[in-house]
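Lecture 7 notes: from sequence to structure.
We start with the chain below.
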Amino acid sequence: MPPHLYLHMPFCRRKCPYCDFFKKVPGLLQSAAYFRVLQAELDLAVKVNRSSPNCLETVYFGGGTPSLHPPEEIARLLRKIEQLWPISPEAEITLEANPGDVTPENAMAWRKVGISRLSIGAQSFSPRKLGLLYRDHQTADNQRAVANAHSAGFENVSLDLIFGLPGETLEEWKTDIHAAIALVPRHVSLYNLEYHEATPFHRWRQSGRITPLSEDLEAEMYRLAHEVLTSHGYEHYEISNFARPGFRSRHNWACWQGKPYLGLGPSAHSFDGQALRWNNVADLDRYTAAIECGDLPIENETTLSPREKAEEWIALNLRTSDGVQHSEAVHVLGEDATNRLWQRAERLPESLRIITPDRLTLTPDGWFRENSVLVDIFEALA
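Predicted structure tokens for the same chain:
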């Protein structure tokens, strides 16, 4: 068993028009039935013994909206996990939550069952932006949610923010950042709005109903977030993530480091830490049917080629503030490929990278343009 476990809770009260994750709008019976199926998948994962058992270091309830479910369902699922695999006493157990769900009662119940980290989907403190995103909470709900979490004893609270919405100004985004900092979260994640196919936002963009911001303005917003958050003591440790010292997301950090993890639930992804990746079917009926037949609901398995492993290793490392260490690159890629990587990186504009004989990292501008930077760098490995 990999030391990191992800459980996908696919249910939401409604789908946000910008989201392309696999989600369902549930009835209560459907939600309750899902937990029974998920427990059956846990049993199957043990039965097939895809990897040796280890003490779990992180458990992550993602979604969807895990906070939509009664705390007692989360508690039963955690007890089931503990029956199968030991959970470290110092494990990071994260629950994603909508602000409106973080009531005093729920927050206390989550702490009691063992949740140690809350990731709250604030998204914005602007009534205009929350309305444009079709969120079902208001600015005051964000503030109450964090206050309730702190009152319940949660020290490790993370806030999600979205920037780059149609019509958004730099000043509006700056107000969002300062409003988040005022609540003293230990962690902040920020995401640039994307127009994924098959979402209403994509259709509205295509029809001209909404107009995206310019890339230059979005880049300026990203730089502003970096400057403000780091000046307030947050470490910009990954493209989208900032943390107080000691409060990086341990689960996500393990994934970015290429550690093995197991994902359960429809559409969940897994990795063996070497070259094998697999994902579950992104369909609730097919997922349920497979498990009821005693089969794992795996839709795809992929074994990365040496070239794919090399590119993925570079991409994951360059996502982080640690970057690519030269000696480690020689071990992973070989000396010749590492030298070519360093030579290609030196051709990049200095505004995009920081390069020394020992380490290659990207600047905030490099992170914002990471996709194009990686295309350029990967040519060195061809």
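Points to note: The chain has a mean pLDDT of 92. DSSP finds 15 helices and 15 strands in the chain.
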